[in-house]
Amino acid sequence: MNQTNNRFPEMFMWGGATAANQLEGAYLEGGKGLNLADVLPGGSSRIKLLNKPGFNFEIDQSKYVYPNHDGIDFYHRYKEDIALLSEMGFKVFRLSIAWSRIFPNGDELKPNEEGLAFYERVFDELLKYDIEPIVTIAHYETPLHLIKEYGGWRNRKLVDFFERYATVLFNRYKDKVKYWLTFNEINSATHMPLLGLGFSPDSEETRLQDSFQGLHHQFVASAKAVKLGHEIIPNAQIGCMLLYATTYSYDSNPENVMHALEEARIFNNFCGDVQVRGKYPSFIKRYFNENNISIEMEDGDLELIKEGTVDFISLSYYMSRTEKKSKTLEEGGEGNLIGGVKNPFLKSSDWGWEIDPIGLRIALNELYDRYQVPLFVVENGLGAYDKVEDDGTINDDYRIDYLREHIKAMGEAIKDGVDLIGYTSWGCIDLVSASTGQMSKRYGFIYVDKNDDGSGTLERSKKKSFNWYKDVIESNGTVI
């Protein structure tokens, strides 16, 4: 352990983050309907399907495995898992609610009581240990019926269905949940509309138009949820959630600098400007014109967006992005989900994601300078292969090193004047990877004995990082 002079705020919220579709399992239990994650296969097939037009949203068990169906069985083991989180000293735990557990098809008038009761039990268990739940309302799990019947978020009708869903959640859990996030990584939609917007592009030509139209519907739905949440839960704190990638120019060539700025504004700033500032930014007009994008809006949409701004920004940060206006195929950033070129100054993870702790400090400064609202890092972590030794230990020093440097960067950002309120490491317990559908891409402090083919005992065990993170929390980030 290292001693630092970082001083995190006294009430800083340390914890971990997960998503329902990646850990719950029980995909057909408790009245739950099918959702997007249930039809996404595991393994190398997934990332190809995420970026290829024409996905059919069908389950084909003769051809694929579907690890999300079982997850890590949190649905039945949540008490055991929450006890382990408490042992680490968690102050908060970020989780999502599976929309199709509450409304199996997504468009029903009455919710499913079994689903509501399940999450109530989970929240009660967390509160028993004084762990504050942070709830994501929509986390890459659009009900399958809304995708097949309505075409996902391209359809305006989903705004009303989401409003009904959010209203039920706020009323049911108003005494148990204070912190809410509307849409997970909302700005990822243009890169991965399948995950974020629940549709597979008909063609590359229609992808941008449909994606930005779907985003507009989500902006309206989010604003409605923020207003409703504040009415039903007066002390609620409701945030947006961005996938943030600090963006560099490849060099000092002005053309590359300008290109990096344009890419960063569209990806990093557009959604934040709408959800925090409450209006479409001026730079988006030129982008829409040059890409033949025309957004259909109803009367009152822009007023609603202005009235339904969020209280704070939450973000995921895994990697930075380096941009070059003209690049060869060989120069591409192989593993970075959001494109760019390889950065010669950075090392990469087992999956090719470039590791850049300083980029997190830059990200936090950029966001706080732009918006002047509290920030919350709700995803950050290292997906890596873990080896179980003969004696059962898992010496994940590489994960400790990764997290240590990112926590140091957060401490520096706080010294810079950034109002940072919390940190939840992604996948605090091993779960199914969203991008690859693999269990072998592990993030957790807690090892789960499950393999990519679905075999394993599901037994939980502590990695070396478990006690390390426990000390970090106990010392409020001064011992890392």
UniProtKB/TrEMBL annotation:
InterPro entries: GH (IPR017853), GH_1_N_CS (IPR033132), Glyco_hydro_1 (IPR001360), Glyco_hydro_1_AS (IPR018120). The active site is at E379. It comes from the Bacteria. GO terms for biological process: carbohydrate catabolic process. Gene3D superfamilies: Glycosidases. Keywords: Glycosidase, Hydrolase. One of its GO terms (molecular function) is beta-glucosidase activity. Pfam families: Glyco_hydro_1. This is 6-phospho-beta-glucosidase. It comes from Halalkalibacter hemicellulosilyticusJCM 9152. The lineage of its organism: Bacteria, Bacillati, Bacillota, Bacilli, Bacillales.
